[in-house]
Specification:
2 domains; two-stranded antiparallel ribbon; 165 residues; two-stranded antiparallel sheet; mainly alpha
Length: 165
């Protein structure tokens, strides 16, 4: 097959049109991608508009500039990261330390094994460990010894506690 100059000219025009269509489609796709990406990364409308304009006006250099300057995390990733930080801080804060020596102690321990500081007391009724400053057992509802009972008859007040008998 012999190509004459007219056929070559038509072939160049067709290839140029396809190339131009590809470049325009790439340009529009990058603008659309930037729009969707920046929406996931920030709520600042000015930053959104500037990012899209940079890609629309500068094309390939604009997308490189956008990729360098865009926020590194999406809004959802930042939220998840914040939740993880809060959970970690709560777990650190919930760690119990001995008031005597400052060492870490378990929540169920009654006495610090290092300095022998009393950490909790036992309920005289059910035997479950309760905090030293509590005046009432949260398990059985029995007041701690020596605490005044509310709405008690004289007979109940004079009745000996199980430990006294």
């Amino acid at each position: 097959m012999i190509l004459n100059p007219e056929t070559i000219s038509k072939l160049i025009v067709i290839l140029t049109a396809w190339g131009a269509a590809f470049v325009v489609a790439l340009w529009l796709a990058l603008i659309f991608w930037t729009y969707r990406d920046i929406r996931q990364r920030t709520q600042d409308n000015m930053l959104r508009v500037l990012s899209i304009l940079a890609v629309a006006v500068l094309f390939l250099p604009g997308i490189v500039i956008y990729l360098i300057l865009r926020p590194p995390l999406t809004i959802d990733q930042e939220y998840q990261y914040t939740l993880e930080e809060e959970a970690l801080l709560r777990s650190i804060e919930s760690a119990h330390n001995c008031p005597g020596c400052g060492r870490r102690v378990e929540n169920k321990w009654l006495v610090c094994p290092d300095c022998h500081t009393r950490l909790k007391k036992l309920c005289h009724q059910c035997g479950s460990p309760i905090e030293l400053h509590w005046n009432l057992c949260p398990i059985c509802g029995t007041p701690a010894p020596g605490m005044r009972k509310e709405n008690v008859s004289l007979d109940e007040a004079l009745r000996p506690t199980p430990k006294d008998s």
